[in-house]
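WARN no homologs supplied; continuing
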Amino acid sequence: MPPPQHQDNSARLLFLILLIWFWLTPDTGPVLISGPSLAATRLQRQRQAHGVLNTTKWGDFSPRQNDDPQGTMSRYLNLTGFREDDGYGWVDFGNFRDRCHEWSRNALSPANPDDWNRPGPAQFPWKNVTGRVHGEWVRRPGTGIQQAASYNLTEIAPGINWQGGHGDWGRNVTGAHGKIAIHLEEYDTTAEYVEEMEDKEDLRSASVVRETAAYVLVQDEADDATAWNMRLHGVHWPRQGAILLTTTSEKFAGIFGLPHLSPGADFFQSSQKLLNVTLDQVLQKRERARFTDPTNPWTSLVEGSEDPWAVTPHCEYIMYLQLYPLDPHDTVLNNYNNHAREGFGGLLDEMEKELRFPSGAPIKRIPDLHMSLVAWSPDCGYFLESKGPPHFPAVDGEHLAGPKEEVYLYQVKTWLLALAAVYIGQIWLLKAQMKETCTPSTIGRVSFYTAGLMLLADGIIFTVALTLSLADSNMFLACLLVTFASFMSMVIGGTFLSDVYRIQEPERRSRERNRGQEGGGSSSAGTAPGTTQSDSLPRPATAEPPRPASPPIIIPSDQDIDAEIAEVAAAAAAVPTPAATGTMTTPRPPQVMTFASITGRFVITGIVIILLSASASSWAAPIRAFYTNTLAFIYLSLWIPQIWRNIQRNSRRAFAWRFMIGQSALRLAPFAYFYLHKNNILFAEPDWRTFCFLVGWLWVQLWILAFQDVLGPRFGIPASWAPEAWDYHPILREDNVEAGGLPIGLVGSFNESAPGSPVLERARSYSAGAADAGEGTRGRERDKDRERKGMHIRSIDCAICREVLEVPVVKAGAADPTGGGVAGVLARRAYMVTPCRHIFHTKCLEGWLRFRLQCPICREELPPL
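OK structure emitted
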């Protein structure tokens, strides 16, 4: 009868928890059936906000400022968050607009400071801003201190079930400095408005406007702070490189009031006309599908739309980005400019056309996007400004910079192709190793956890690459190649791991059986298993004296016949007989987990690591760095389980050195890219100190494996730390002749009457006329030196190669001069002695034991290496 399988009760436990949660949750909020009505109410508010946008003009939004003269009339809009009664900190709106003008003047450097929105005749910024920029920011407090508890969210946005509105809001930056990453999106389908003018020579600079959006990640460098992801929508004026973005939520109609936040009247007119058209198209589509699509198309949540019946308040943001014109004196650009037909502006148009529609034009280098940032939170009352000139020196920061989207995708594809090449190298090494590790003896040496850690990493990369290939069409082919390479590595590694698990299964059964016997009670401690009561009677007087205890022999896991016999005997003993019915108990068979259960645990572990790594982007910087470094340290500790198994089994080497060095280098290569390369695809901060520590840690593991291979796996390890195992390289002494400690072939050297054995005692002959006379002289000197130190050199024939094997034997009563040192270990590495007292060359017996764990002479079972 097969042993009972482990039952997984996790599904039942999860169902029970969900049932209790549904039973105990109070029914205080709106039910799900009210979702369509709430969505209709939201759509009605958005349509009303669109009407306000369409009917207002420049100057209708002029909130009160701290420096306004007495009697100045203030004006507000009938939009959520733009009303005076809402209590937002619009007193800093003038400061925000002045900061925008200052940022534009610093970037464009106009001849007339009043013409802050007019680039010079030789200044041309990128017209398409699709790309990724990152940099550092500093926080500047606003004029008035805003507290979350001072807002009445029920009056600001009635009909919304606010969750935690009186506590700290999300996205509330409290640190003095941090980092920011912005992913700007502006594609061919993006709406664009071009204002038609009567005088073509006097076009306003803001007459061309495009719709744009951005994903923003704000990282607060405070120790207890976290990072926030948000999505902003806005417009881009390409002629002067100005971008205005805002968040939109239930308590802030940012996208509908965006034209009133623009830095000038001409900016207002063009953006109002663009948004009137684009917002109306979106609302018409939502009105046709309001019962099936109740989401907010302009939500600031990255993960999706806000839930209308459970909304969490966040700090709102208004961001102004100013692009820096490209340097016409750049060496590469100047070289192209000399061949451009329409000057530097025409060159940039040709480069952008080549990026968007590649034709194979030879472009050596694409300049990065470079822009400054000023962000303002009207409800939380503070400013975030990019770090750079003129308020900070260039060594402290260069505002925000990063590659255009096409360049970034090229970098990602290049990295993915390099990763695929790394996996192809890992597959080649693994296939070569599997050819060498193909017998039960060699597979038994491999650590299951070392091979499993490699397989787990391959499975994680496979899952991530497969997800990216399905999510992003731009990287489909590159991700597909990585997916295929990692899948092949995972399949081959899984096959190898399955063989390791199958070969080592008897060893695990024996270990579980021993644990069960140790915890079985003290009643059977004095009687060995399988013995009867008659075995404990006194022995007859004529009986021969009992044989001394033989050295312990470790039966290999793949040849544990006794374990199988014991299991059969236990199963037979479990069958009750008529005489013993009611008195015998059924022994419990050892519980061994199946390989399918192990595979399930690997899958769950990989999913947990992927989810934690995905959420780590919003963690605090110290916690995220600790998590990343810890994960890298655990992954690069892949040889520690193999070192431990070598000690436990007293085996020297399970993998070839080509495999160990190659796998170490290939698996370290991706970490080298992110830890050392500044402009990596994840915009991770280089950390060469941590990388050097990881390299040193991996190097130490390889050195330990090398010491185990040369000096033995238990060299320097106390005997009590490891289980008993046969020592194939013992110290041979003449005192052990009577005790049976010397090999059979060497006994005849001391006892001439001993029966014949495969030994040939030869006296060294160093003749003067030999070709190697110098070597003969040195050999005689070494022998004399060893004789003085109390050692004999005996010669014996190796039964495998039939060559002479010279063995050092310590004289009776003398101490081994090199017994406990490295020299003695290296001297004993020349021979190997089996438990059946036969001696062979080390290389000969190691090669034999790779295929059969039997003595070549007497066919006695041998313990594994």
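The mean pLDDT is 78.
OK
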